[in-house]
Amino acid sequence: MKPVLFLVVPCFNEQEVLPVSLPLFLGKLKELILADVISRDSKILFVDDGSSDNTYSIISECARSYKYVCALKLSSNRGHQNALFAGLMEAKDRCDIAISIDCDGQDDINAVDHMVKCFLEGYDIVYGVRKDRKSDSVFKRSSARLFYKLLNAMGANTVSNHADYRLLSKRVLEALSEYKEVNLYLRGMIPLVGFKSTSVYYDRFPRMAGKSKYPLGKMISLALNGITSFSVKPIRIISAVGFIFAIISFIGIIWSVISRLAGNAVSGWASTVSIICFLGGVQILSIGVIGEYIGKIYLETKRRPKYIIEQKINMD
After folding, report:
1. How do strand 162-169 and strand 97-100 relate by DSSP bridges?
2. Is residue 226 part of a domain?
3. Fewest CB within a 10 Å sphere: which of 86, 205, 230, 231?
């Protein structure tokens, strides 16, 4: 029996690229069906993350025209990770495997063939990993390398050069649904699920049309969310730094007392101000890191829904 595949595609203000990438996805799905690799019940699920342009009009019209296309509209913009999670959870009870991919056409759609093949060989998770980052700018290449190194150093188990292009089996989706946190970072959550996994390597292309929806600010926010959601090492580092400075301060007190008793005390305004400014900076940074964790606890305790679905088309 052939597996039912759902291709989950989150979208946010992608009216420029959808007319180009949508036929590409539809063509690949039909190709796999005609090759008798996947079931004829397989579909493409587009998730509109509260777009303010004509994105939903495009995907809803396509869903009404093609039986292989489904449309899901969220009531508001909840962010890429929440939109992707919504699509995966909606696909969970309707498919055997789900493959998530961005709609910008940068991820090689032909890698889907290899992912499905790996699933048929017994793998529950197949990561799409970039062969290299030649298409990126020097800054993005360097920052991405630093980001993955930092995440791994902080104890978050992530796959380098892997974004959100991956295959998940039905049992992985069911296990993932048990994760209740509000602050989602799927790149870190998926490895926690476990099960047999492998990687498929592919070339990443330039964006087909439109502009990237992940500017520097969002990339930094995603990095901070990834670190603070999967590691308490920053707090432990703060504790270690505080302990070291406490020892240094204690030694300094002893030294100043001895110098005073020996009559060698010299007033030093510059050194005093420098030490105070340095310690003040360390304290403010430490409070900021701790505050980030407290903020996450605050959001988690509210138990607000990660997404609200406004409309579904062709999801029967």
Report:
1. antiparallel
2. no
3. 205
